[in-house]
């Protein structure tokens, strides 16, 4: 069982305490700062780009490339052009980072000077240590009881009669403001105790007004939310002056026609900042109330009778009835709020486009990683906020024995927030997002549905990881467990969110939904993205290695021990299908599987009409279908057997079964294929790819990549089917997991480490070949129908705009079979016929490579795409 040691506020009298995991106050503050900095970057990019929006800077690169086309070969010409474009992008990136850092420093500086301004403006005076000796002693005593190393400086506000206080300041110097009404209430209580009969409690009982107010304010210091509050208020003041106003003024002067569009975006961002700030201030009060109540503090009345429209719309403090309810049931603070997921989605969708616009060009090289890498920081933000909510809610259900959180509502809110943020963000396309959605409603609906599925799968997976890892946590806090779950989840969600943005942009720009869906599915065949996805998928099962012995309880400071039931993880069950595959290989001498395999592939090739490339694709497709069917069956059976208890851990078992079965099948088929040749290998020729072990490793890795990519989808579908049907047929209580023996855990850890190293060794070589950083099998020329594309005509006979339209059509063609190379061969031929010297030079160089179905055309595709972005249609 888990063994996180709670402080007295963690759990008292059997009540669940909210202090084991990061508070919702922190999550909302992080969202507030993120949207502030994102909007800052957008403002700087808008103002620094000038009236042309950086177009003039990029046109300078276009003109220089056109002038250099007459004297440079295609390769150096493309490299020089990309270097110029990347320099402009680097300037945008550096300027945006500096602007965000400057605004962040301004917020911190304002927070640092604000306490001094507050003391002077409100006329606060230090409490005299002689006259208020009893007050000083009370504050010192309560601060020591709360574990505070520094006692705040006590200040008196002689103008406020309400018995209230306020903890404020900047690390490391904090102040405790007490209204004169608090001191008056304390004196009245003292007189009441003097006149009370012996043994008779004065009215109210418990702690007096002074101690209740002091305990509540000290709770803010103990919760470390005083600085968060000051930074929140500073951000609210900085945003309209430094971020919102410059955008509106610049648009009014340089582009008045876009004032409405910019104004709506600024208004939406300002409203989001105000809503998040109000949420931070309300949340901090609830956590302070719970901590003060755990220390014996009484309720602190905060209702001031403010009934104005702004106060009703964005209340800065919760009402007294809500505060009393939270004090009675602190588990309310552990509930998974869909509003946090919605806010995280809006912040992500709002800032992702801008971050991609400034980071993407500055990265250079392979532009397909621009959006995934730009989405990684927002993936970390989203996972930290939404994941904290999932872990808090899972902890609550593990302690209370209730049904675990499902995450469907939160996933829907996250997807809705991302879509809303995208709609109000600047569009990287030629038209605004709203226009693109109205023009292509089917593509918008399809990509939106895909995003919904991704977000729901993400939010349903988080409680699975939480239910597996929380019971095996050790230490005084569960923060390491949360951080360990956030890192793999963010590494997967962020890049895959970027992949979805690429797919949705393709679908909306071309109106071709299948092309966009293919673009998203093609990312499964990316070695880097597939690897981080599988790390996140297998993360819940890693808790089995940490489950050591039973009886490790969560012991509250005052109350009975409460145990967290561990998830039942069965790694041997998940690996059984892979063992069965290897068993088939062991009896190959009796079954002659190699002959059946070779004969089947030859029959498939004989039924295909086409060239050698078509035959090869058909045979590979048949082999992959066989793999994927086996992975589907393995995941279905394992998920059905391991999916009891309603924790969702059966999904992880099914995915592991699919992965292990695919790896075992790939190894088996490779061995059988080698044995089916029936003759010794030909002698090696120096320099031949057939004798290069790295090239051979990349070829085997490419097959494994394809098997794993398809197996990911097959395993997910099968696992969901098995778990869903099992949930409908019967429901039973979860059986607690049993700890494994030490030798079993050590052996499993060693096996996992060996498999991870082997996977990395193979996938690094595949990734190098995919990105063109190393030669691979794809560089071998194949007979392709692209060779039938006629050569280009003389240059200067075609307008550049029409050729760029052909390039856009080629970019939408699926990367599968001859059609891809044929489309690019035709596009390069049109480019070679244009009146633009840069496009003509690159088109003449790219056409032969595309005709040969060679990867030599890859370095020319991005320069052509960048250049065509600014070519007028024609």
Structural summary, described in words:
Helix 3 packs across helix 11 (338-363). By secondary structure, the protein is mostly helical. 67% of the residues lie in helices and 3% in strands. The protein is built from 29 helices and 6 strands.
> Roughly what percent helix?
55-70%
Give the helix/strand class.
mainly alpha
Radius of gyration: 32 Å
Distance between the termini: 69 Å
Query: Averaging pLDDT over every residue, what do you get?
Result: 81
User: How many strands, what sense, and barrel or not for the largest sheet?
Assistant: 4 strands, mixed
Helical region count? 29
Q: What gross morphology would you assign?
A: flat
Percent of residues in beta strands?
A: under 5%
Identify the quaternary structure here: single chain
Secondary-structure topology with pairs:
Blueprint: E1 3-4, H1 24-48, H2 55-68, H3 74-122, E2 125-126, H4 133-145, E3 153-157, E4 165-170, E5 173-179, H5 180-195, H6 209-222, H7 226-254, H8 259-294, H9 309-313, H10 320-328, H11 338-363, H12 370-400, H13 408-423, H14 433-439, H15 441-469, E6 474-475, H16 479-510, H17 513-522, H18 527-538, H19 571-586, H20 588-591, H21 593-606, H22 612-642, H23 649-675, H24 693-729, H25 742-770, H26 800-811, H27 818-832, H28 837-851, H29 858-868
Helix pairs in contact: 1-3, 1-7, 1-8, 1-11, 1-12, 2-3, 3-7, 3-11, 3-28, 3-29, 4-6, 6-8, 7-8, 11-12, 11-13, 12-15, 12-16, 13-15, 15-16, 16-17, 16-18, 19-23, 21-22, 21-23, 22-23, 22-24, 23-24, 24-25, 26-27, 27-28, 28-29
